[in-house]
Design brief:
The structure is a single chain. By secondary structure, the chain is of the alpha+beta class. Helices cover 49% and strands 12% of the residues. It is built from 30 helices and 15 strands. The strands form 3 sheets. The protein has an 8-stranded antiparallel beta sheet with strand order 8-9-11-10-14-15-13-12, sandwiched between helices. A 4-stranded mixed beta sheet has the order 3-2-1-4, sandwiched between helices. The chain has a 3-stranded antiparallel beta sheet with strand order 5-6-7, covered by helices on one side. Strand 14 and strand 15 form a beta hairpin. This is Bifunctional uridylyltransferase/uridylyl-removing enzyme. It catalyses: [protein-PII]-uridylyl-L-tyrosine + H2O = [protein-PII]-L-tyrosine + UMP + H(+); [protein-PII]-L-tyrosine + UTP = [protein-PII]-uridylyl-L-tyrosine + diphosphate. One of its GO terms (molecular function) is [protein-PII] uridylyltransferase activity. Keywords: Hydrolase, Magnesium, Multifunctional enzyme, Nucleotidyltransferase, Repeat, Transferase.
């Protein structure tokens, strides 16, 4: 807050006092020895409290703060009465800062305002001198000002920091009506002006975060100004006073961090002990003080203290995110945006909609009867980049039942969509974690939550490192044949930490129970377990062993069971793990060594298996023998998945037409097996409706026939549908709230294999999904004049691994491959191109 210079006299320059004749009778003599002695007694009492209190008993942190508040209030009220600062005197002593909040720390400044009712400058000056000088003489740090109510309101209107400080003002002594005029006026002024000051408040807050960093992930955090610190709690109070939020996002004591009030108290206790240990005012927790503070608070050593701080700071950070978002949505609109219609509820998934820039539950959602709803909400949040509303998370936390084990396929797929969303997944997982939902989904997470790293090279806590690794792995999914296992392995590769023993061995055992819970096939559980067990094998071997020694390569090959899929998964995981550890951990030297080790291991291992078609169902073969077009829809064990079987004459364009009709009706293809028998195509699609029930089989059959007759341009219709989806996500004032862009996390990759049949090749595409991708791929292949003999399609979260067997029919193999690859890459999502560097001004 704004304060007058320490040496200035009330009534002099900068005091704000005005000549107005005689005021009420107050003591105006010079400062006496008695008044100085009284302040000296205050200083001695403060010292006694800090040295251990009465009867040599050390006060705990909350008791010490309360004792300091009581001590200073008693001195100020007594001194005020001595100076004539009484009711109806025209003077009031008002506290701001720690004393106002009743959070006075051992070496905090005493923040005071001497209010007066426009009294004579000489009288104001004398009273101020007798109030301030004893405190200065006793070496008590003082931040002071002398003002009338209009002057204080003017300062609050011009200075954001002063305004935030005065919002906490509390009457201490004197004319309570005068204090109420200031407190009520500042709060009314804040509420009335918040719309015009909100952007400045956000800018100031983000600037503070940029300067001070995140408490949860900083070796020596700033407890006051860091992100997740005490200033952020005061920010929430300011938003509540502005009537934009209720000040609390609904985090209860059972959530990690114990709720906002508990997290706030923890930070206050740590900062109190920091003052006591340092012997002076300090906000930054130094590493050398952490053990002593942890012991004083009975938390443990410095690592235990770091974990408590991370937990508390992340709770506060989440609360502030919710508070700022809620406040922003509560502000009245400006200009033309005031005229726009009420925000619509745009469907995102079954039971999930967008409303007001947030992911919320649909009106007909039944979270108490839909265990998979948690994952659908989280996946929609990560895909769109929109936050989940706090009320939705609270409702899910209160109502959603546990997912049955093993998980339904839909829930696993939604988890893969979440993990495949890159950095957008981090905020979604953090929100789930702060509300207790993430730990419900992955109970093993509790041991690594907020677990501090044991070496300085790690930037993040262990749990955040795991999420960061998954985010980096999402950009490497097209390098591997199993993108689903890559992101899952990245998420849990260090899950064994915090339990004692070799974390790779402990984690491998945990991976078995996690994989079984998620519903993975036994062979996939074995792969996931091996990833966790050997996630350090490649980097440690490459950087510590002689790669020219055949025994080095043989050791790796034996450990991995000569499994090339596992080898490529570990290669990608090693890169993602290093990138998520900290700056400089992954570089050209380490990358080249691991790449060379992997190359030599591949030479020793058996060659990769060739993609092959799935066997045909005998019932489908019999139906194909009858000829004609047949479409069947059958439910599966999942609540929201179905099998669509299309049997029709094997004519050019059938695959793209069938896939396009499914996409047109919002049926997402999860997997497909495409074959033929005696001139009839037999195509089976595992699909999941985006929302609602699937259409009738007869409608799908009718539209496939129309498409085959050339009456329906499916690619054009899908393009229009995609454009409409993007347009609906753009607000009327031009700001994008949730635009589903076509940019991918990982670059697409096309692999070629020679088939066992002469003249045929197998094309394998690894890419990220988009609306109607299978239709677009089949159309691109067919437009090049190539005949698809069979196909296998897999959608793993947001990634696709599609294999097509193509008959080249004696054509120039190399030229056909180049043309096909160009056509395919033109319809699949690719990473966003790098932005050109900004030109310096004046060029």
């Amino acid at each position: 807050m704004h304060s007058d210079p320490k040496g200035s006299r009330a009534g002099g320059p900068g005091s704000g006092a005005k000549a107005s004749g005689s005021g009420p009778s107050v003591s105006t003599g010079s400062a006496s020895k008695g008044t100085s002695d009284a302040a000296a007694d205050l200083a001695r009492a403060r010292k006694q409290l800090l040295d251990g209190g009465t009867r040599n008993r050390r006060l705990d942190a909350p008791s010490l703060r309360q004792a300091l508040v009581d001590l200073h209030e008693f001195w100020l009220t007594t001194k005020g009465a001595e100076l004539g600062i009484k009711p109806d005197s025209g003077f009031a002593i008002v506290a701001v800062g720690g004393l106002a909040r009743r959070e006075l720390l051992p070496y905090s400044d005493l923040d005071l305002i001497l209010l007066h009712d426009d009294l004579e400058p000489r009288i104001v000056s004398d009273v101020a001198d007798k109030l301030w000088y004893p405190l200065w003489d006793a070496h008590i740090k003082l931040d002071h000002s002398v003002r009338t109510v209009p002057q204080a309101l003017q300062v609050a209107a011009a200075d954001m920091t002063a305004s935030l400080g005065m919002l906490e003002a509390r009457h201490i002594a004197g004319d309570v009506e005068l204090s109420n005029l200031l407190i009520g006026g500042v709060r009314r002024q804040w509420r009335n002006g918040i719309r015009g000051r909100f952007d400045e408040l956000i800018e100031q807050t983000r600037g503070r975060w940029a300067r001070s960093g995140e408490i949860a992930h900083r070796a020596e955090p700033d407890l006051k100004s860091g992100r997740g610190g005490l200033r952020d709690v005061q920010l929430l109070d300011a938003l509540s006073i502005a009537q934009l939020t209720d000040g609390m996002p609904g985090l209860g004591p059972e959530s990690p961090g114990g709720g906002l009030a508990f997290a706030h108290g923890r930070l206050l206790d740590v900062r109190t002990e920091l003052h006591r240990v340092a012997g002076r005012a300090r906000d930054q927790l130094r590493a050398q003080d952490a053990d002593e503070i942890g012991a004083a608070l009975r938390i443990g050593d410095r690592f235990d203290l770091a974990r408590v701080l991370s937990d508390s700071a992340r709770t506060i950070s989440y609360s502030v995110d919710v508070g700022l978002r809620t406040a922003g949505n509560s502000l009245p609109r400006r200009g033309l945006s005031r005229l726009r219609r009420v925000p619509v509820r745009r469907p995102l998934d079954e039971g999930v909609v967008e409303h007001g820039g947030e992911v919320v539950l649909a009106r007909d959602a039944r979270p108490n009867k839909d265990p998979g709803l948690i994952m659908r909400v989280a996946a929609a949040s990560a895909q769109t980049g929109m936050p989940m509303s706090a009320s939705t998370l609270n409702r899910l936390s209160d109502s959603a039942p546990e997912l049955r084990e093993p998980w339904p396929k839909e829930a696993l797929n939604d988890l893969l969509v979440l993990l495949g969303s890159g950095r957008k997944a981090i905020a979604a997982i953090e929100a789930l974690d702060r509300t207790g939902l993430w730990g419900r989904l992955i109970p093993e997470w509790g041991a690594v939550r907020d677990l501090p790293p044991r070496d300085a090279v790690h930037t993040w806590t262990v749990d955040r490192h795991l999420v960061e690794t998954a985010a980096y792995a999402s950009a490497l999914t097209t390098r591997v044949a199993r993108p689903d296992l890559l992101v899952l392995g990245a998420l849990i590769h260090d899950i064994g930490k915090g339990r004692g023993g070799d974390h790779s061995v402990v984690g491998a055992d945990l991976a078995i129970q996690i994989g079984n819970r998620l519903g993975l096939w036994p062979s996939d559980v074995a792969l996931l377990t091996a990833m966790v067990r050997y996630h350090l094998l490649l980097p440690e071997t490459a950087t510590r062993r002689d790669l020219d020694d055949p025994a080095t390569v043989q050791t790796v090959v034996v450990a991995l069971g000569a499994d090339t899929i596992l080898l490529e998964l570990l290669h990608a995981l090693a890169e993602a793990d290093s990138l998520a550890t900290g700056p400089g951990v992954w570089g050209d030297w380490k990358a080249s060594l691991i790449r060379e080790l992997v190359r030599r291991c591949r030479l020793v291992m058996a060659g990769e298996s060739l993609p092959s078609p799935d066997p045909l169902d005998p019932a489908h073969i019999e139906l194909a023998s009858r000829g004609g077009v047949h479409v069947d829809i059958a439910p599966t064990e999942g609540l929201h998945t179905f099998v669509v079987t299309v049997i029709a004459p094997d004519t050019p364009g059938l695959l793209s037409d069938a896939a396009g009709v499914l996409a047109l009706h919002s049926l997402r293809v999860l997997s497909a097996s495409l074959g033929s028998h005696e001139g009839s195509a037999i195509n089976s699609f595992d699909v999941a409706p985006l929302f609602g029930a699937p259409p009738q089989a007869g409608l799908l059959r009718q539209e496939i026939i129309r498409a085959q007759a050339g009456e329906l341009d499916l690619v054009a219709v899908l393009d229009a549908k995609e454009r409409d989806a993007r347009a609906e996500a753009v607000e009327d004032d031009g700001e994008e709230s949730a635009v589903p862009v076509l940019y991918a996390q990982a670059p697409p990759r096309v692999l070629w294999f020679d088939d066992n049949e002469p003249g045929q090749v197998v094309l394998e595409l690894r890419a990220e999904d988009r609306l109607g991708l299978l239709c677009r791929l089949a159309s691109a292949i067919e437009q090049q004049g190539s005949d698809i003999r069979w196909a296998r399609v897999s959608t793993l979260g947001s990634s696709v691994v599609d294999s097509f067997c193509i008959d080249l029919a004696g054509a120039d193999s190399r030229a056909v491959r180049e043309d096909l690859e160009r056509a395919i890459l033109a319809v699949v999502p690719a990473p966003e191109p790098p932005k050109p560097p900004e030109k310096p001004e004046g060029t």
